[in-house]
Structure formats: C-alpha cells, structure tokens
Specification:
The protein contains two helices and no strands. By secondary structure, it is mainly α. The chain has a domain at 1-42: Erythroid Transcription Factor GATA-1, Chain A (2-Layer Sandwich). The termini are far apart.
C-alpha cells in the first residue's frame, strides 16, 4: 500500500481520490483562487532599460 501525501491546503489525510492532490473540492477551489489572485506567481527581476545603461557608459567614458 502506498502512503499518500496530505492535502497541500489543509494538511488533512486524503481519503477520496476524486480531487487529488486535494482532499475535497473546497481545497481544490481554494488553490484555484490562489492561482487567479497571482499568489503563485514567480517573481521576476527587472533588467535596466537601455537608456539607463547608456547613461552609465557615458559616465565611464568621460
């Protein structure tokens, strides 16, 4: 018998496989809501624009 992981939302033991990896539809809906709100977004590092780089290079060449 394989030991299942707990529900990632409420940490309850999963007894019904209908909503895997969640234990219930409620936990699946909570997770979906988090996706819609952007809670799972990957933070991005903004690169400087070219005008900023040009100013830095101009200062170095003086």
């Amino acid at each position: 018998m394989t030991k299942s992981k707990p529900c990632p939302i409420c940490k309850a033991v999963i007894k019904d496989v209908d909503f895997l990896p969640f234990c219930t539809k409620r936990c699946a809906d909570i997770d979906l809501g988090r996706w819609f709100k952007g809670n799972y977004a990957i933070p991005a590092v903004e690169t400087p624009d070219f005008t900023e780089l040009d100013r830095i290079e101009d200062k170095d060449s003086e």
